[in-house]
Specification:
Blueprint lengths: L1 E7 L10 H12 L2 E7 L7 H7 L6 E3 L5 E2 L3 H9 L19
Parallel strand pairs: 1-2
Antiparallel strand pairs: 1-3, 3-4
Helix pairs in contact: 1-3
């Protein structure tokens, strides 16, 4: 299963403290198949993000069924590393192992 990672367009930023990189790195380390969706820098232009999560903050994950997952990046990274990302997919009852 592939997920979409909505993140800032500053993809060159790869430091541990950057929220978008923290989540992207967790996805890579966990072997989760994902598509990077870089978005606008200006919060007022983040329409897709706002309609999906109700917020204009990065990062966020959209599952194949169209449901979204958004928390603080440290919490998202922990969820991914612990293998519980699938649990956040509102439209799926599958196990976390199926993400790989």
């Amino acid at each position: 299963m592939a997920v979409k990672l909505y993140r800032c367009s500053s993809q060159w930023v790869k430091i541990g403290a950057h929220p978008c990189w923290r989540v992207e790195k967790a996805l890579m380390e966990a072997g989760v198949d994902y598509e990077r969706v870089p978005g606008p820098v200006r919060r007022s232009k983040r329409d897709a993000l706002r309609s999906g999560t109700g917020q204009s903050l990065y990062p966020a994950i959209q599952f194949e069924d169209g449901s979204w997952y958004r928390e603080e990046s440290a919490d998202m990274a922990r969820t991914i590393r612990e293998g519980h990302l699938r649990d956040k997919d509102a439209g799926s009852g599958a196990s976390a192992a199926e993400l790989h």
